[in-house]
Design brief:
Blueprint (H helix, E strand, L loop, with lengths): L1 E7 L6 H17 L6 E7 L7 H15 L5 E11 L2 H13 L4 E6 L7 H6 L2 E4 L7 H19 L8
Parallel strand pairs: 1-2, 1-4, 3-4, 3-5
Helix pairs in contact: 1-5, 3-5
Length: about 160
């Protein structure tokens, strides 16, 4: 299964970008035995349209177009369900076992996700009720995906 982190907001060079890159490399290496063959990180500039609905709509098109046909979406949204790491791992395991080829983790822009992104997501996940800047959300997500991979391959990184 191929994983994609698709995010609104450009990641600038610096410590957070380096952390995402570090976790992405770890995911690629550790994920192979679990059936995870790739992790791609794609970012898009924030929309410049006037009005939050118009901006979120334009950003939704970018996120949808970045996903391969037939992708399963996991949308990160403050309205989503807060999960434990084990529950998050359960989602990835379920998609692996069901033969999902592409799993896309979508991070919205400052205006959040357009309704069609939330509606079409198979999973809507929250990192809590707080709003996180897109760069930090990417770091948190990359670390959690790595943690999930280590759970799937029985590596001792994650401890209950």
């Amino acid at each position: 299964m191929k994983l994609t982190i698709a995010a609104i907001g450009r990641m600038k060079a610096g410590p957070m970008a380096e952390l995402v890159d570090t976790y992405a490399k770890r995911i690629r290496q550790a994920g192979r035995p679990a059936g995870i063959t790739e992790l791609t990180v794609i970012d898009f500039p924030e929309s410049r349209k006037s009005g939050s609905a118009a901006r979120a709509g334009e950003e939704a098109e970018l996120l949808k177009n970045a996903a391969p046909s037939g992708s399963v979406f996991v949308t990160l949204d403050e309205r989503g369900k807060p999960l434990s790491t084990a529950d998050f791992a359960g989602i990835v395991r379920k998609e692996l076992e069901s033969g999902t080829k592409d799993l896309v983790f979508a991070i919205g822009g400052p205006d959040g996700h357009a309704p069609e992104i939330r509606k079409n997501a198979r999973y809507m996940v929250s990192f809590g009720h707080m709003t996180w800047p897109h760069m930090l959300a990417r770091v948190l997500l990359a670390e959690q995906i790595y943690r999930v991979v280590t759970i799937l391959v029985n590596h001792p990184y994650h401890r209950d």
